[in-house]
Amino acid sequence: MAPRKIIIDTDPGQDDAVAILLALASPEEIEVLGITAVAGNVPLDLTSKNARIICELAGKVDVSVFAGCDRPLGRDLVTAEHVHGKTGLDGPDLPDPMMPLQDQHAVDYIIDTLDTEDAGTVTLCPLGPLTNIATAFQRAPEIVEKVQQIVLMGGAYFEVGNITPAAEFNIYVDPEAADIVFKSGVDIVVMPLDVTHKALVTKPRNDGFRALKTPVGVAVAEMTDFFERFDKEKYGSAGAPLHDPCVTAYLIKPGLFTGRHINVEIETASELTLGMTVADWWGVTDRPANATFIGGIDADGFFDLLTDRLARL
Ligand code: RIB
Ligand code: CA
């Protein structure tokens, strides 16, 4: 089977970095057409720099990286240095990138790519706030029906929020953008905290990264060593949750995951629950299903896949 053509939309972020590495290590299943950076974990100048740092760490300097929106559609930017550190990639000491940022704006790149590629052949993989995707859909509505699928990390239901009591960070930062995407009619697969909090980098798993004895393996071990602090302190987790790599792993081995096709709507009005993903998991409304909401993962299988693929870089 031909590899899936994807655009990774991202706000690196250590977990974004691992997701990008997994994608770049899996050419049989994934063709990364381009990487578009968005403001999120840290401001755009850092997310667009970090995306290139990761491509160079992977030895893939020919990947096109684009800078996109530097703030949400209609709100001030909220960042997460308290989780990811000042640089967004705290942990390993990685060199500044030599590869260039593309001149084209990320939103224009997304539009042009969907306009040019055959309809139904490009998957969008948002790993941060949905600002770039929503802006592209607003600016060029004709591309919406050409999207093959959106596989995104965001939201929460049983796990509730990680940035407020009700909301997960990616959705909270730009709830209006999320509302546009979830109402777009595109086939959406959602990796919420409900599943990503089951993908924890325990010490044996972290040791497995380090045991690769490669720059990539050691860097991933150092990244996850750093960003586990937040979740260990807040949740008592056994290690860092690999949120964004669940998106890439799903493209490679969807059988690792289980979920339900349900209705998911975004709270955009209430300040108390702003950014909440209201997931009708129990089917108590007649609202139409618009997303496959993932809740289960074969965590050992996920980490076996991840470690095997990182060993290739
Ligand atoms: O809530 C977790 C999500 O927010 C992840 O994508 C992480 O990288 C941050 O963007
Ligand atoms: Ca992210």
Briefly say what this structure is:
By secondary structure, the protein is an alpha/beta fold.
Number of helices: 12
Largest sheet: 8 strands, mixed
* Helix/strand order: EHEHEHHEHEHHEHEHHEHEEEEH
Q: How large, in whole angstroms, is the Cα Rg?
A: 18 Å
Number of DSSP strand runs: 12
Shape: globular
Distance between the termini: 23 Å
Mean pLDDT: 97
According to CATH, the homologous superfamily is: Ribonucleoside hydrolase-like
Helical proportion, percent range: 25-40%
Bound molecules: alpha-D-ribofuranose, calcium ion
Tally of individual domains: 1
Unreliable segments of 5+ consecutive residues = none
The share of residues in extended strands comes to 15-25%
- Lateral arrangement of strands in the main beta sheet: 3-2-1-4-5-6-12-9
Structural class: alpha/beta
Q: For the record, what CATH class applies?
A: Alpha Beta
Q: Provide the CATH topology.
A: Inosine-uridine Nucleoside N-ribohydrolase, Chain A
Give the name of the CATH architecture. Answer: Alpha-Beta Complex
What does this structure look like?
This protein has 313 residues and is α/β, with parallel strands linked by helices. The protein has one domain (4-310): Ribonucleoside hydrolase-like (Inosine-uridine Nucleoside N-ribohydrolase, Chain A, Alpha-Beta Complex). The protein has an eight-stranded mixed sheet with strand order 3-2-1-4-5-6-12-9, sandwiched between helices. The chain has a two-stranded antiparallel sheet with strand order 7-8. The chain has a two-stranded antiparallel sheet with strand order 10-11. Helix content is 37%, strand content 18%. It has helices at 14-24, 44-57, 81-84, 106-116, 131-139, 169-173, 175-182, 193-196, 203-210, 215-235, 245-252, 299-310, and strands spanning 4-10, 30-37, 65-67, 122-126, 147-153, 188-191, 200-201, 240-241, 257-262, 264-266, 277-279, 291-297. Strand 4, helix 5 (131-139) and strand 5 (147-153) form a beta-alpha-beta unit. Residues 11, 13, 16, 41, 127-128, 244 line the site of calcium ion.
